[in-house]
């Protein structure tokens, strides 16, 4: 009994395993089904000099542009967002979002389309960009269903996902073995659909995303080229 108790205490005393992130950069083709002109998209993760990480995403085509930037820290297995910025123009109404995650005051403060945002902050709460890295990490761990608390506008929403299986994705760098993941939504509440593909052999880099908006518009990005931890992505 005493030995079992000592073993249990020893396990509890072990340091929390740090989340291992690898910098990456990737370029994609970006297509709206309703627009005959293709665009481009760029996604990158970079470690900053102060130990924080920065995740960037930019997409543009002739009639629209979209950009996101998140900065965050990692403690053990937990993502701690610091800031989130979004700018969108064209194809409907423009949108601008700014969020600051004040961990000392335990508040998220900022603005969404000019309206002020102020929400209670707790560990595990993510922004609309950083949750994608959390998803990427947990897919790599082999999880089949995932759930995240995400700051969405002036509310905190629950984002649920499930793994659909493995699938080969044809990209410009060749065939890539990927894990196919679906955003789970209540079909009686939302007609939006989001499916993502993560490359198994390349630290689960996002290689394809397909989204159907509630008005039926379809959007897709597909990997053109990329690198993970300085190594160029290559298909089979």
From TrEMBL:
Residues 1-18 form the signal peptide. It holds the Pfam family DUF3108. Keywords: Signal. InterPro entries: DUF3108. It comes from the Bacteria. The keyword Signal applies. This is Dehydrogenase.
């Amino acid at each position: 009994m005493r030995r079992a108790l000592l073993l249990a205490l020893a396990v509890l005393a072990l340091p929390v395993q740090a989340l291992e992130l690898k910098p990456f950069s990737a370029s994609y083709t970006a297509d709206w089904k309703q627009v005959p002109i293709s665009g481009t998209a760029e996604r990158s993760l970079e470690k900053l000099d102060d130990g924080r990480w920065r995740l960037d995403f930019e997409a543009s085509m002739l009639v629209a542009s979209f950009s996101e930037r998140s900065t965050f820290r990692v403690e053990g297995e937990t993502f701690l967002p610091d800031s989130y910025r979004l700018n969108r123009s064209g194809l409907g109404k423009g949108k601008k979002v700014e969020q600051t995650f004040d961990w000392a005051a335990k508040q998220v403060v900022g603005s969404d389309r000019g309206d002020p945002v102020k929400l209670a902050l707790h560990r595990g709460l993510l922004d609309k960009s950083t949750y994608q890295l959390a998803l990427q990490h947990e897919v790599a761990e082999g999880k089949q269903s995932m759930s995240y608390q995400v700051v969405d506008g002036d509310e905190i929403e629950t984002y649920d996902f499930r793994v659909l299986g493995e699938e080969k994705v044809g990209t410009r760098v060749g065939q890539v073995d990927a894990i196919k993941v679906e955003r789970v939504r209540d079909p009686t509440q939302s007609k939006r659909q989001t499916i993502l593909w993560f490359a198994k052999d390349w630290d689960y880099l996002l290689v394809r995303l397909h989204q159907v908006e509630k008005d039926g518009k379809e959007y897709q990005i597909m990997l053109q080229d990329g690198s993970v931890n300085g190594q160029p992505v290559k298909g089979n």
